[in-house]
Amino acid sequence: MKNLLLSLMLATASAAAYAQVDVSGAWIRATVPSAKSSGLFMQIKSTREAQLVEVRSPVAGTVEIHQMQMDGQTMRMHAVPFVALPAGQTVNMVSGGYHVMLMDLKRQLKEGETVPVTLLIRKQSKGTETMSLDVTVKPLTYSGH
């Protein structure tokens, strides 16, 4: 009985060590037939300090985490190596801020379909975990909240 209790306690402690991440409001902008890129937007909240370090999707040849920033009077977009996920805070990945770019699209993304996406989260303990999502494609004119 002691061994079973100890095993349960260790399993619970181990599970609590993982960065528990919730993703809400995830969506991808639909494309016209000739488009080669689209954006992925969402809200991410982690219970522990973590980082979003990579995003993957089979619909794109390249997937990058991007940030929009003002450079003087010009808004510029550039890739970033990660997005910090502070413990207990929601990080909004939106147009005009941090977001994910799906590039070298292999096909048109049509309104209403779902696209598989995998997030790679680096935990404070330096380990990584993956999170699989099925993200809905919204109309080309959709702007989120």
How would you describe this protein?
A hairpin with a 7-residue loop joins strand 1 and strand 2. The chain has a single domain, classed as Immunoglobulin-like, CATH 2.60.40. It has one helix and ten strands. The chain starts with a helix and ends in a 7-residue tail after the last strand. Strands 1, 2, 3, 4, 5, 6, 7, 8, 9 and 10 form a ten-stranded mixed beta sheet that branches. It is mostly beta strands and 145 residues long.
Secondary structure: elements and pairs:
Elements: H1 2-17, E1 21-29, E2 37-46, E3 50-56, E4 60-71, E5 74-79, E6 83-85, E7 90-93, E8 98-105, E9 114-123, E10 128-138
Parallel strand pairs: 1-10
Antiparallel strand pairs: 1-2, 2-7, 2-8, 3-6, 3-9, 4-5, 4-8, 9-10
Signal peptide: 1-19
Keywords: Signal
Protein name: Copper(I)-binding protein
Task: Produce a short descriptive summary.
The chain is mainly beta and 145 residues long.
Number of strands: 10
* CATH architecture level-2 label: Sandwich
Please tell me the overall pLDDT.
87
Please, how many domains?
1
Distance between the termini: 52 Å
**CATH class annotation:** Mainly Beta
What pattern of helices and strands is seen along the backbone?
HEEEEEEEEEE
Q: Tell me roughly what share of residues is in helical segments.
A: 10-25%
Q: Name the CATH homologous superfamily.
A: PCu(A)C copper chaperone
User: Which regions have little confidence, pLDDT < 50, spanning 5+ residues?
Assistant: 1-18
Bin the strand percentage. over 45%
Coarse morphology: globular
Enter the CATH topology name: Immunoglobulin-like
Taking the sheet with the most strands, its summary is:
10 strands, mixed
* C-alpha Rg (nearest Å): 18 Å
Enumerate how many helices there are, as a single number. Answer: 1
